[in-house]
Every structure is written in C-alpha cells, then in structure tokens.
From TrEMBL:
It comes from Cephalotrichum gorgonifer. Gene3D superfamilies: alpha/beta hydrolase. Keywords: Aminopeptidase, Hydrolase, Protease. One of its GO terms (biological process) is proteolysis. This is Related to prolyl aminopeptidase. Belongs to the peptidase S33 family.
Length: 474
C-alpha cells in the first residue's frame, strides 16, 4: 500500500501581471505570486515567486487577460538546484518555437532569480539552526507544491481540458518532475525530461560512487585530447602551493589547489573540455611570463562556478538526493571521493607525483565533477558565512519523501525522456533504472550528446522528444 500522500499545496495568490512585446513575435507577461514558505502550514511566512509567460504575438492582450488563451500550458523547469531562468528569448524552447503551440511559463524556483532570492544576507533567522530550518524548504518537495499552486491559480478560468499542464524538466528540473509525477499527477498532461531521470530512492553515496566513475572517464578523455595538460595542471598546482596554498580572488574568495581542481565540473557539457584547456593554457602562460595570474584570469576562475551568486546550489546540492526520512547526505561526495586515489587531494595536501626518471611523464592529477565538498565553504565568500548552516543541513535526516514508487509504477501521464550515455551528472545506468520504475515512459537514449544538449544541441533534442510524443508505437 502506498504511503499517505502529502498535504496539497496552499493556494498561490497572483500579485501582478504585466505584458510587453519582444523581438521575435513574442509576448512576455511578467507575473508574481505569493505562497507560504511551508505549504503544510498555510499561515507560515509568505514568499514571492516570479515568472515570465511567453506566447506568440498573434494572440492579443485584452484587459488583464493573460495571453495565449486556447493553447495548453507548458512549464519549463530549470536545472540546478539554485538557478533562476535565463531570459525567455534565450530559452531553447522559444528558439525552437514551442511558444507557438504552448503558453510557456518560466517560473524561477523559490530562492532563485527574482523569487525571494536566497543569499547570505537574506536568509532569515538569528542562528544557524534557524537558517538551516528555513533552507530546508527549498528542495523538490516544496518546489512541486509551488508549481501546483501556481498551476491552479493560472488555470482557474481555463476550460477543463486546459487546466492540467505539460512540464519540461532539464537536469534538476527532471528531478522536480519525478516528484511532481509522484504526488500530483492529476495536474499533468505530459512530461518531457532532458538529462533529468533522477536516481529514485538511491542513497547519496551510491549516486556519487556512480558519478565519480564517469568523472574518471571524462578525465581520461581530457588528457587523451590534451596530453600536455598533465604537466600543465601540476605546474599550476605547484604555483598555487608556492604562494602559500591560497591566492586571493578579486571577489574576496580564495584559489586553492582543491578549488582549482573543481574546474572539471565543465567536463560534462558540450565544449566543456575545450573551455578548461583554454583557461589552463592562459594560466600556464601567465605563470611563465609574469609569475602570477592576472585579474582577468582570477575573475574567470571565480566566475567559473556561480556559488557566490547561486548559493542554494552548494548548500542543497547533496540534499536533493536525500529521498526521505532517515537519509542524511553527510558530505557524501567527500566521503566517496576521498577514498579514490585519483582524488587524494580531497583529504590531503597537494603533492607532486613521483617521476620514475626525468623522461617519465607526470601522473595526471584528476579534476572533480559536479560535487560539493566542505572546502567550498572555506573558499567562496558567500559560502564562508554559511559553513555552519551547511554542516547542519549535511547532517539533517528528517527530509520529506521525494518519490512514490507505487504511484510511478501505475503512472498514466505521458512521459518522454532524453537520456545520455555519457552524462557525467546523471548516471546513465541509474537513469535506466529509474525509467523502468515509470510506467509508460518513452526514452530517447544516445551516446552522441552530453548533459547540456537541450541548450547546446536544442534542435536535435527537442525534435527527438517531439517524435517520441507524436509517433505511436505500433
């Protein structure tokens, strides 16, 4: 028997809606809502959600009526966690003209973009316990209730056949989508997932055991493509260590050897390997010419990951794998990675490898991938003040359930997914296991695309999913 379903979301209140035209025959309507911080306690603190609705310009705006009447709704769920939406004009869904068939909603998740954004100075509470309690409401379980509340608000004047909506979940947005399918399937008419087949009810350390294997593969691919970088990485790491192991960054953080080795997060996307090589080449040449890194290089390094501007990513990244009560992340990535020889630098000072002879090549130093480690909270200025909060969340084990496998097994919503064999962030084998748990899902699998393909190769991905939707299995 399935567990009791979660309490339905508290109503969302539409606070404002204003429309304007934009290039490309777009009508963009900016909307804002308020919802409770804790949907299970309607009288709890209210937070504000911000979104943009995109429709085709042929639909006129009459009074305060939202544009796009007669078209079904499609909500785009961004990756993350912790990232707001890009400009609608930059969305792959708009570039591929899906706004001509749907009213597309780009809703910033709570705490991101313009939706009561989270930062070190905006988290309420006087203690680390208070702040941790506040941030515990910013995972998939709360996001799904926001979405369902907004859906009910936006569709209340629509005809019955348009009151359920489609969702498109990219990466973490797919995690959100599977939570939505688990608990509020009646609100959904169809689901599209791109690189978002979350590991359902899999412990965090098992997730990282799988993704570290893929990170190793991407490191091997990197050094095969740029074999000279095996020496360059050691050259740069040695320079950092010679500067006391810590170089001040323009924004107030610190470049350390471990932080330098997190550049591998880019390996999972199209052109990621090339972007890391280009940055390393610049660093190597600056050491040789000037004996230090220029401001432009240091700025590029600190902006390579946006944890200072999107802190939820770092604070709650492991929590998105804590699928229910009794599961704590407890720095799972660190616990797994520090046991792996290629990543010894996680738990020990950097050391140059031993040369068998002067002509012997240096053993490559491996980069990490999409993992968060305790040292992030020592090297990013926005995170330093949240270190105690992050520790409390890492040990927290009273998380609400994220998935209902019995509901997924009897699913009746059409689900179409793109899954990538060489995905460094969402392990392919775990994704396949999840697909087997979702009744009726149709999956496009490929080893020719990477995790960010919906943006880098949008035409290929979107057309593949549309074919899955439109071509029935005979």
């Amino acid at each position: 028997m399935a567990d009791a379903q979660p309490i339905p979301p508290s109503p969302a209140r539409l606070l404002s809606a204003s429309s304007h035209t934009a290039p490309g025959k777009l009508i963009i309507t900016e909307v804002s809502f308020d919802v409770p911080l804790n949907h299970d306690i309607p009288e709890s603190t209210r937070i504000r959600l911000f979104g943009r609705i995109v429709t085709h310009r042929e639909q006129p705006i009459v009074g305060d009526t939202l544009p796009g009447g007669g078209r079904p709704w499609l909500a785009y769920l961004e990756g993350g966690p912790g990232f707001g939406n890009r400009s609608p004009q930059d969305s792959p869904l708009v570039k591929e003209n899906l706004h001509q068939s749907y009213r597309i909603l780009f809703l910033d998740y709570r705490g991101t973009g313009l939706s009561t954004p989270v930062s070190a100075t905006t988290i309420p509470g006087d203690s680390a316990d208070d702040k941790a309690a506040y941030l515990s409401h910013f995972r998939q379980d709360s996001i799904v209730k926001d979405l369902e509340a907004v859906r009910l608000c936006l569709t209340k004047k629509d005809p019955p056949n348009l009151r359920s909506w489609s969702i498109w979940g990219q990466s973490f947005g797919g995690f959100v989508s599977l939570t939505y399918l688990s608990f509020f399937p009646d609100g959904l008419r169809e689901v599209f997932l791109t690189g978002g087949l979350a590991p359902v009810n899999v412990r965090p350390e098992v997730v990282y055991e799988a993704t570290f294997k893929k990170v190793v593969e991407r490191n091997v691919a990197y050094y095969e493509k740029f074999p000279e970088d095996a020496t360059a990485v050691h050259y740069i790491a040695s320079h950092i260590k010679q500067q006391g192991g810590k170089i001040q960054l323009p924004g107030g953080g610190y470049l350390t050897v471990p932080r330098f080795l997190t550049l591998g997060i880019s390996f999972g996307g199209h052109e990621g390997i090339h972007s890391v090589h280009a940055l390393l080449n610049k660093m190597k040449l600056e050491i040789a010419q000037f004996g230090h890194f220029t401001r432009s290089t240091l700025t590029a390094l600190e902006q390579d990951t946006t944890f200072d501007t999107d802190p939820i990513y770092a604070i709650l990244h492991e929590a998105i794998y804590c699928y229910g009560p009794g599961v704590a992340s407890d720095w799972a990535a660190f616990r797994v990675g520090s046991k792996l020889e290629p990543f010894y630098w996680l738990s020990a000072d950097y050391k140059a490898p031993h040369r068998g002879s002067e002509s012997a090549p240096l053993e490559p130093l491996y980069f990490s991938g999409e993992m968060i480690f305790p040292f992030h909270f020592d090297t990013y200025p926005e995170l330093i003040s949240l270190k105690e909060v992050a520790q409390k969340l890492a040990l927290h084990d009273e998380w609400p359930r994220l998935y209902d496998e019995e509901q997924l097994a009897r699913n009746e919503v059409s689900v179409f997914a793109a899954s990538y064999v060489d995905d460094m962030y969402v392990d392919f084998d775990l994704a396949r296991a999840t697909a087997k748990k979702v009744r009726g899902i149709r999956v496009f699998e490929t080893n020719a695309l990477y995790h960010n393909a919906v943006r880098a190769k949008s035409g290929e991905v979107i057309s593949a999913l549309m074919r899955l939707r439109d071509d029935p299995i005979e």
